[in-house]
Amino acid sequence: MDNIIVIAVLALGGLGLIAAVVLFFIASKFRVFEDPKIDEVEEALPSANCGGCGFPGCRAFAEATVKSAKENKSIEGLNCPVGGNDVMQTVGNILGLAVDATDPMIAVVRCNGSFAHTPAKVKYEGATSCAFAHALYGGEGGCQYGCLGLGDCVAACNFDAIHMNPETGLPEVNDKCTACNACVIACPRDIIELRKRGPKDKRIFVSCVNMEKGAAAKKNCEVACIGCSLCQKACAFDAITITNFLAYIDFNKCTLCRKCVEVCPTNAIHEINFKPRKPKPESVPEKTVVRKAETVDKEAVPAKEQIEKGDTKAPDAATEVKEDIKVTKE
Amino acid sequence: MGILKTFALGGVHPEENKLSSHAAIEVLPVPKQVIVPLGQNLGAPSKAIVKKGDKVKVGQLIAEAGGFISANIHSPVSGTVLKIDPAIDSTGYRRPCVFITVEGDEWDENIDKTDTLKAEIALTPEEIVNRIKSAGIVGLGGATFPTSVKLMPPPGKTAEFLIINGVECEPYLTSDHRVMLEKGKEIMVGIQILMKALKVEKAFIGIENNKKDAIAYLSELSQSYQGIEVVPLKVQYPQGGEKQLIKAVVNREVPSGKLPIEVGCVVQNVGTALAVYEAVQKNKPLIERVVTVTGKGVKKPSNFLVRIGTPVEQLIEAAEGLPENTGKVISGGPMMGKSLTSLDAPVVKGTSGILIMEKEESGRKTESPCIRCSKCTYVCPMGLEPFLLSKAAKLGKFEMAENEMIMDCIECGSCQYTCPANIPLLDYLRLGKLKVGQAIRNRNKK
């Protein structure tokens, strides 16, 4: 009985040994040299495999960076948008190269055609896909450039960073956005754009991509860019260009001075994460304030209505005026 | 009559509903303003050569072909060019259109407006093709492929048969039927012209058996013309598809991704044959066409001879108005037509009918999961697997869709018509075709 066990162990052990020796020689003969740095770089990357860098996955990006570092002594043009500057610094340290800091980006939805602004004119009951709606019937709203609201961008996002707002029918990007570009590619109407995140996430952009003449654009959407060029004239930094009746703000030139936002007659230029502005004395017509101050004593309710009617600025500006008046009343 | 011919694979037989088949063609009065879209044909849109304020006559060239696969556009009315601006067309998009305010009805001097039949064909084949090209004739069946391009086979290929499509397999539509009954003689001459241009000896006219009067009339006429034969066909949708018609009439199969000329056939619609006759013999460019206005709720289902650019609304008014419970208005037939987003959309060269659907019949039924009954596969006239293709397109697996030959789909809608689970198969097939088409074009560019 013992004999059988010994034979079995010896036979299998011997086979294993022979196989190991053969494999050792084959492995050393056909060994493919791979830079160990590739593994190190891959380790440093976020492993999201999102393709935001332009390569199919993190491994391919790591290979490309190591290759570029070896051949060109720089990794310029290669950037992991998801990892951002921190990850790129780590990658630079691994490869022994200095890495320039890049501006973090974020996806921006350039459409303001909510249900209220572009009410549905037709009804479609088939497949719900933006790509399909864009190709087949032009969407339910009247604007043929605006957001279709069927969520191809939401489906494309791997980071849970973009969601439809059921009230407006427009997608909204949150802070989880890594600027991987997936939603930009998914949008059939090129509405989503990657823009600089900006200092303290402050951004100014034209929230419209309608290239029709002003009258036609406004007919379908109250808040469309009509290409009036007031913003272009107001901008002191040449950041605004107008092509095809559509203003575009170059985020590299923009200094976030907000002059364009003030002059826009259709409120198509949006400011994000700015503090609500204080009412400037000259921006609020003095007459209205005085008149209201007089009438407030007699009839409180109609005065409020007048304030709202008299002030055509953004709603928050109007509430500020109201508060202001209360103060004067006291 | 024996066993009637039809195509081999698949097909469905929807309710025919040819409500307007006895309504003779009426000439619709010239509208006050026409909107002529610049992109009316398959291929490149045309380029406008008139500007604001120009005076135009009926039949005057207003836009030139914008490429090889493109067509001239002629003014359908006389008057002044109001503007060239984007206007909503049947696609639902605003695209460049020429607006013409109508003043009187003054025709170009070269056009022969008389009704006399001119049977002698004086022109050479090359002259015929040039005449057809300059007249801006496109396939009037609905695909609007420029006719002159079809008449110029690529080098090394010769046409053997001319097949005239009088099938009109779409339910409801009757414009081709009426044209065959009322303009039979002209069609015969048109076919002779096309035969001469293509240098073929034999032409077939395929007509479905639900148009017995047209079959009888054209068979009688064809006795006096050499080489023209009427082929009665079994009623089966989508027999009007080019590839299905070739299979039905001459029993040849067009290879995947190839054109009918590969098997020596050229297919033209009966309406196109009439337009060819008018262009070659009467010098009249394509400025009007027959449009069916029909639907179960329509008081007076009719066939109208309409100038291109007439707003759809006027056609509906002429058919005694939009019924109250209208659910949707379709440009084309119920199977392949496209819902209009606005009644301001104009009639274009490819508008074969305006179908008004009632609310009850226009809505989609609730979609339920696929039960793997494979009905869609049985009815697909191209031998595809619609359930697989649509799923692939839905999930974004476009490579798989391409390998499963999604580009062979003719978008006939038989699969969706027959699906017991009411899955919008055709929607996803169209999406898939679009994406795969883009990918193929990008690949070819590189």
The biggest beta sheet of chain A is recorded as: 2 strands, antiparallel
> How many E strands of chain B?
17
CATH fold node name of the largest domain in chain B:
Rossmann fold
Give the CA-based shape of chain B.
Answer: globular
* Helical fraction of chain A: 40-55%
Distance between the termini of chain A: 107 Å
Q: How many strands appear in the DSSP assignment of chain A? A: 8
- Structural Rg of chain B: 21 Å
CATH class descriptor name of the largest domain in chain A: Alpha Beta
Oligomer: heterodimer
Helical stretch tally of chain A: 13
Instruction: Name the poorly predicted regions of chain B.
Output: none
Backbone structural class of chain A: mainly alpha
Which radius of gyration of chain A do the C-alpha atoms yield? 30 Å
Structural description of this entry:
- The complex is a heterodimer of chains A (330) and B (446).
- Chain A is mainly alpha-helical and 330 residues long.
- Chain A has three domains: 36-95, 3-methyladenine DNA Glycosylase II, Chain A, domain 3 (Orthogonal Bundle), CATH 1.10.15; 105-272, Alpha-Beta Plaits (2-Layer Sandwich); 286-329, no CATH class.
- Chain A is 42% helix and 10% strand.
- Chain A has helices spanning 2-29, 36-44, 58-72, 84-95, 130-136, 152-156, 182-186, 214-220, 230-234, 259-263, 286-298, 300-310, 315-329; strands at residues 105-109, 162-165, 170-173, 192-196, 203-206, 240-243, 246-249, 269-272.
- In chain A, strand 6 (240-243) and strand 7 form a beta hairpin.
- The longest helix of chain A is centred in the first third of the chain and has 28 residues, at 2-29.
- Mean pLDDT of chain A is 81; it is low at 283-330.
- Chain B has 446 residues and is an alpha/beta fold.
- Chain B has helices spanning 125-134, 147-150, 175-182, 184-198, 212-222, 242-250, 270-282, 312-318, 359-362, 375-379, 386-394, 398-403, 414-418, 425-445, and strands at residues 25-27, 33-37, 47-48, 55-56, 61-64, 73-74, 79-88, 94-102, 161-166, 202-208, 228-233, 265-269, 288-294, 302-307, 326-331, 338-339, 353-358.
- The longest helix of chain B is centred in the C-terminal third of the chain and has 21 residues, at 425-445.
- The radius of gyration of chain B is 21 Å and the shape is globular.
- The interface between A and B is medium-sized, with 16 and 19 residues.
